[in-house]
Write a structure and sequence with these properties.
Helix content of chain A: 40-55%
Strand order of the largest sheet of chain A: 1-2-3-4-5-6-9
Number of strands of chain A: 9
Largest sheet of chain A: 7 strands, parallel
CATH architecture of chain A: Alpha-Beta Barrel
Structural class of chain A: alpha/beta
Distance between the termini of chain A: 22 Å
Strand content of chain A: 15-25%
CATH class of chain A: Alpha Beta
Oligomer: homodimer
CATH topology of chain A: TIM Barrel
Radius of gyration of chain A: 17 Å
Number of helices of chain A: 11
Order of helices and strands of chain A: HEHHEHEHEHEHHEEEHEHH
Number of domains of chain A: 1
CATH superfamily of chain A: Divalent-metal-dependent TIM barrel enzymes
Chain lengths: ~260, ~260
């Protein structure tokens, strides 16, 4: 998503040329290029697929809507397996129109997870619950903290349900370090993503995730927190940024790789 | 601030005509009309001044900057006393340019509070620490939760330092109800403010606070939480909203009073 202006083949080509060893994919561009074709492309290129984004959106109320959401998540699990990644990232959904009830929405998520886990187990896929920044609680994700995400994950085996730690969403939270320690000790950190916090936020608050080093986050400190739990894995950089999307995708990928080297290590 | 388009005399006149018994004031319009003149105006009108907004901005680093901030807060305390309110609301400030350190910024606030409390005690004013929504953590307020605000307040007597509970800032937080119970039991709820959460957020994320009833918040439930602690006081409606500011101020005040009656009680 950081370089959504690149087609899947262009992305894979750029990763290979820039020695980026692993990539997180999103469902829409994968579908556009074709699932099997994408799987073959990344496999032939020797790229690791770190995760597939995204399932989720499990807060709806009507039975038809809920059945559609579950079917879509099962399809996403299948797609993750086909792409050779073990991780499907879940963005869980906001409040239905007119709803005032965060607690009930979170309860519907818990119910839906129980229905999805058996299918994930069959496919060898783990679900990574991503808490989103509280500014998205109404319209995108009623799960706003790592503590809440862990509470949803804990009824299930760590190999099936864990959390996605995205610095953009949790950096403000003084309880995040303790939650990371707890998640890591339990083997529940299934994804670790980076974006910087820059202001002012753009209208809609969605597409202002800063390039690493442009904002207020200390990525070495966040990496140290995660790796102190024994976690070792590929770290993703996930930027939604109108400015970056307007530029040449290969140049943005090269810049991101350079910032990753200088800001994270 | 809900009707910032009204001058202080127009505001006081509208409150009287609409039977709004109490009003929270901001320093800038008070200064514009004159402190003594405003104090006389509200007193003669029989209006209660619920609070003065705002002191704070205590996260700066240089000694000159910190001395200026402390002097400004002492002046704000004096202004609150002159206006006949016992409550100064504090918005504590964001990260200095280039800073990555929320923890150090919060520590500077704690130090500054210790320097301000004696002056507040002399004037009979209490300081209300307002946690702001986490989307403002970088640029406006590094204190993002009621738990954090309470931790800053607790070293001081409840009659001197407490918290401001603003639904807009805390509604997403599953720990807010427990924090309200704790704050109320300790006599530390010094201000209770309402605004609704509506989406999409405008650019800058500052001026999209919704009119009561337009968004996702259940104000009866929030009032019940606060009043369950034994708290009784005037409830403020504080809306920063470009749409409301563009309308006739008296009409907005009348609408707000009507929504207050229908949504909160």
């Amino acid at each position: 998503m950081t370089v959504r202006q690149l087609s899947v083949p262009a992305l894979v080509d750029a990763c290979v040329r820039l020695a980026v060893p692993a990539v997180g994919l999103w469902r829409e561009p994968v579908a556009e290029h074709g699932l099997a074709a994408t799987a073959k492309l990344v496999r032939d290129a020797g790229l690791t697929v770190t995760s597939l984004c995204r399932g989720g959106f499990l807060t709806g109320t009507g039975s038809a809507e809920r059945a559609r959401a579950l079917a879509d998540n099962r399809a996403a699990i299948d797609e993750a397996a086909a792409l050779g990644t073990d991780t499907l990232v879940l963005v869980l959904g906001g409040l239905p129109a007119g709803s005032h009830d965060l607690v009930a929405a979170r309860a519907r998520i818990a119910e839906a997870l129980a229905l999805l886990v058996p299918h994930a187990a069959e496919r060898g896929v783990r679900l990574a619950i991503e808490p989103l920044h509280p500014m998205y609680a109404a319209d995108r994700c009623v799960v706003s903290t790592l503590d809440q995400a862990l509470a949803l994950a804990e009824p299930f085996p760590p190999a099936r349900v864990g959390v996605a730690v995205d610095t953009y969403h949790v950096w403000w939270d003084d309880r995040a370090p303790a939650a990371i320690a707890r998640a890591g000790a339990a083997g529940r950190i299934h994804s670790f993503q980076l974006a910087d916090w820059t202001t002012p936020l753009p209208a809609g608050a969605l597409t202002g995730r800063g390039q690493l080093g442009d904002g207020h986050l200390d990525f070495r400190a966040w990496r140290a927190l995660v790796e102190a739990t024994g976690w070792r894995g590929h770290i993703e950089v996930e930027l939604f940024n109108d400015g970056l999307w307007a530029r040449d995708g290969v140049a943005v990928l090269a810049e991101t790789a350079s910032r990753f080297a200088s800001e994270v290590f």
